[in-house]
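Collaborator request, handled under Task 6.
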Amino acid sequence: MQVLEKAFLAGWESTRREGVTASIAEEEDSFRELKELTASAGAQVVGAVLQRSPDPDPATLLGRGKVHELRAEARAAGADLVIFDHDLTPSQLRNLEKALDFKVVDRTQIILDIFARRARSREGQLQVELAQLNYLLPRLAGHGAVLSRLGGGIGTRGPGEQQLEYDRRRIRRRIRILSQNIERVRSQRALHRAHRRDQHLHTVALVGYTNAGKSTLFNSLTSAGVVTSARMFATLDPTVRALPLDSHRTALLSDTVGFIRKLPPHLVAAFRATLEELDEARLLVHVTDASDAQHAAQDSAVEALLEDLGVASKPRLHVWNKADLLTPGERHKLDSDVGSITISARTGEGLEDLRRQIADTLAADPVVEEEFELSPADGKHLALLHRSGTVVSTQYKEGKVLVRARVPESIREMLKPAPAEALLER
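Structure tokens returned to the collaborator:
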């Protein structure tokens, strides 16, 4: 039986903010989220301390008295490490480890640890390692004695113990190699996206907060069999599958990594090769866990990240998921939200309505019926008609193939013969 590490949580919240009651609720929710992150990283929470003060202590984030209190309570609880619900500066990290005599992990580090556990593809592993090394590099100075005793557990996965022996030069060299490999991944993804454009297949991307049920919805719409879990960040590696819309239209559906508040900027940068899939999406489907009391704050975090990625202006459908967990009153309130769709990806409720709305949104490229005159040797365009539309009839006449098909208008425009005047100008 695996013995779980015992983690003690710590945080700081400013009392200078307006709306102190609201900010306290936000901090408490952030603590709840940190507890879920800790469980996802494979540790057990044994206690928590939160300090509220006008300003953070620049040396240790918490005041001296609170640090002593934290050390005593963590020892009494038998903790193995202390996890802070904030990003700590390198000097704060060193000072806290010295003052507490515990392994100290900040919010960024625990997210990186979960990503290291969950990354399965080579691409995902490259991106996680790059983010870990960028996190580690500024924290090397004066860290030797503390790092040498980490030995394992949260904060040491992925490149792990080998990282601790790297000097700056070796880490920077490794960062360069990883960056070059990720650039190659970006190039490969760009080729795949270009191929999809050539096939005139629209991409629909699922976005939303982590654990909103995107992968369950992805499976329900595509029968993909992607792994789902109640743990945070169950999906790291993007998956693309065919999404049948109706009898003659198919799109591609992309499942993406879940967002979270306080997502480290360099982690977003490392995963940019993956998140570039959103750039090519014709439509974003924003999935919200309607049963979560903090769904408004989660949606705000998603919106902020979409802004950072430059895709906030894309056409979007908003989906309230997990309707099966709502009370009748909560359900009635959501049903009155014009412009949103209420579904349960687990039970299948509302999925056909969602599929229709996706098809309607993509219908800026309406389906038309047309007869095309092609050469028997033109296998590329014949295949395109079969792949992107519904072939009604095929006739062979005088060395030509006459194909009547229902296809998106953009396909008809592409295959329509050029006007005679245009041919003369060539």
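The cover message to the collaborator said: "Confidence is low (pLDDT under 50) at residues 142-151, 418-426. Residues 293 and 419 are 60 Å apart (CA to CA). Please let us know whether this matches your experimental observations."
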